[in-house]
Amino acid sequence: MKRALTDLAIFGGPEAFLHTLYVGRPTVGDRERFFARLEWALNNNWLTNGGPLVREFEGRVADLAGVRHCVATCNATVALQLVLRASDVSGEVVMPSMTFAATAHAASWLGLEPVFCDVDPETGLLDPEHVASLVTPRTGAIIGVHLWGRPAPVEALEKIAAEHQVKLFFDAAHALGCTAGGRPVGAFGNAEVFSFHATKAVTSFEGGAIVTDDGLLADRIRAMHNFGIAPDKLVTDVGTNGKMSECAAAMGLTSLDAFAETRVHNRLNHALYSDELRDVRGISVHAFDPGEQNNYQYVIISVDSAATGIDRDQLQAILRAEKVVAQPYFSPGCHQMQPYRTEPPLRLENTEQLSDRVLALPTGPAVSSEDIRRVCDIIRLAATSGELINAQWDQRTRNGS
Ligand code: T4K
Question: Quick one: what percent of the chain has pLDDT higher than 70?
Answer without folding.
Answer: 99
